[in-house]
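>> received
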Amino acid sequence: AEIWHEVMTRVQADLTPRPLPMIAAGAPIAEAPGIAPAPQFGNPTHTAPGGEDTLFGVLRSILGIDG
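>> returned
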């Protein structure tokens, strides 16, 4: 719980409020302004750099938290 709190605190500190792009009703999402198509992921067996393919492992690797 402490790690999760620390991660959420860092994420909220890094987020800056910005206006959401206006999307017209019925418009394809991928063609809306400011939204890129969903990324195509490669090998599904790929693991995070730390060897952990869990949510916490990925978050730790992204934020540079060891442990």
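>> The chain is about 35% helix and 0% strand.
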